[in-house]
Design brief:
Length: 469
């Protein structure tokens, strides 16, 4: 329930007889949880690229008329949460680059990026040498412009991407659209998820496998770390751009991914339920009911309740229709904070000792309000239990937590955190317990937010990390 900016979602489709934009719309709908700032789709009809981008949710950005204008058999789509450049339409994706002014329309490209580059120094230096002004460009747009520069040198798109790859310092799962090709690539550590499916004679890419079921696509495999997959009229072609060493962001399992997705061969739902079981073994509390903070923590609470034998109650009701709005709330409403999204049920909570289950505590502001809300509803005690370790280190790979000073666990002891939240007791799942619940070896996971171990060099931003916390 902690308000975190998600990492963006990408979706791509290729098929000779497919209405690609319509399929992309439904794919993005399934990936709405990964970004609610803006959405966009770019398509190709084999000759030219067309794009539609707007601010807001998928349901707000597109009309039937918009989809009908996006004619083509290849498409990429993007749901954005701003990590670089801010929440403005100018930075909406897919991003376009236009080497066409030099080479003709056939060289145009669109790019959709899930992730973040903590350092863009190499890209900026390259673009400066090529006479491209990088000021004001997002990291995604810089990547697109760098590839376009190589295309202007008459390189094939695959070679242009391979030349640009070493300049991309950070986390990325990227889809690229040209008039005739759909291309997917991941960073060498595979920090951002990206998977591949087959569909009715065509091919589909998505940030998460949950996007395949609504359109009837069949999961094939993940795009490998450091791999580039190219789809054109001759089929699917794989090329290694770097030696891969998989370290998927552990926060995908904790919070970001939908429970009906699979990551690293594991059901996200099952990993969260097992996290609840591990939490029950590590943190036994005297409680009358177990209450999850919806939605992510529900499987965790199911596992915790089943293991402890404490009854599970859905005593916090989420308003499912509260999404991002561009209408500023009236002051009185703004002061309600989390009450706008969650409603407690006093008849269930009153005079009860509550074991409230959540996925994580990051800044702590939302968690503090939840604890207060439960006490206001008549709770006798509120034990706050988290399905992950304390988040002590900033993220530079796509989550909007780059400022370590704002992380509660980075500046407070466990007892100070408990006091700040106002909880009766406070318990975190250990990192060992979380990894056991996920069911894969630790070396396949990026745990930087918990441990400060960053697999991709932060370069000039290393100075922003306090490792002594």
């Amino acid at each position: 329930m902690e308000v975190l900016g998600e990492k963006c979602g990408v979706f791509g489709v290729y098929g000779a007889d497919l209405d690609a934009a319509r399929l992309a719309f439904f794919g993005l709908y399934a990936l709405q949880h990964r970004g609610q700032e803006s959405s966009g789709i770019a398509v190709s009809d084999g000759r030219k690229l067309t794009r539609h981008v707007g601010m807001g949710l998928v349901s707000q950005v597109y009309t039937e008329a918009d989809i009908e204008k996006l004619q083509g058999h290849i498409a990429i789509g993007h749901n954005r949460y701003s990590t670089m450049g801010g929440s403005v339409l100018e930075h909406g994706q897919p991003a376009f680059a236009h080497p066409s002014t030099r080479l003709g329309a056939s060289s145009a490209l669109a790019l959709a990026h899930n992730g973040n580059l903590p350092s863009t120094k190499l890209l900026e230096e390259f673009l400066a040498r090529r006479g491209v002004e990088a000021a004001g460009l997002s990291d995604s747009r810089m990547i697109a412009e760098a590839i376009a520069c190589h295309l202007a040198d008459s390189l094939a798109i695959e070679d242009a991407i391979a030349r640009t790859f070493p300049l991309m310092t950070g986390a990325f799962s990227i889809l690229i659209l040209t008039p005739t090709k759909l291309i997917a690539l991941r960073d060498a550590y595979g920090i951002r998820p990206l998977c591949f499916a087959r569909f009715d004679g065509g091919y589909v890419f998505a940030s998460e496998s949950c996007a395949f079921h609504p359109i009837g696509a069949t999961y094939e495999r993940d795009v490998r770390p450091g791999e580039m997959l190219v789809i054109d009229s001759t089929g699917v072609h794989s090329r290694a751009l770097a030696k891969g060493r998989e370290q998927l962001d552990i926060f995908e399992f904790v919070y970001f991914a939908r429970p009906d997705s699979e990551l690293l061969g594991q059901s996200v739902y099952e990993t969260r339920r097992r996290a609840g079981e591990e939490l029950a073994r590590e943190a036994k509390v005297a409680a009358d009911i177990v209450v999850p903070v919806p939605e992510t923590a529900i499987p965790v609470a199911i596992g915790y309740a089943a293991t402890t034998g404490i009854p599970l109650e859905m005593a916090l009701v989420k308003n499912r229709y509260i999404h991002r709005t561009f209408i500023a709330p009236e002051q009185h409403i703004r002061e309600q904070g989390v009450k706008l999204k969650l409603t407690p049920l006093p008849e269930i909570i009153r005079d009860k000792r509550i074991a409230v289950i959540d996925d994580s505590v990051v800044r702590g502001t939302t968690s503090k309000q939840i604890v207060a809300m439960l006490f206001e509803a008549g709770a006798k005690a509120v034990h706050f239990l988290l399905a992950s370790p304390p988040v002590k280190f900033p993220d530079f790979y796509g989550i909007d937590t780059p400022n370590q000073k704002k992380l509660l666990a980075a500046s407070h002891s466990r007892e100070e955190m408990r006091s700040y939240l106002g909880a009766t007791t406070l318990h975190f799942l250990s990192l060992a317990g979380l990894i056991k619940a996920i069911g894969v070896s630790r070396d396949r996971l990026c745990t930087s937010c918990f441990t400060g171990d960053y697999p991709i060099d932060l370069l000039e931003r290393t100075k922003e990390v306090n490792y002594s916390v």
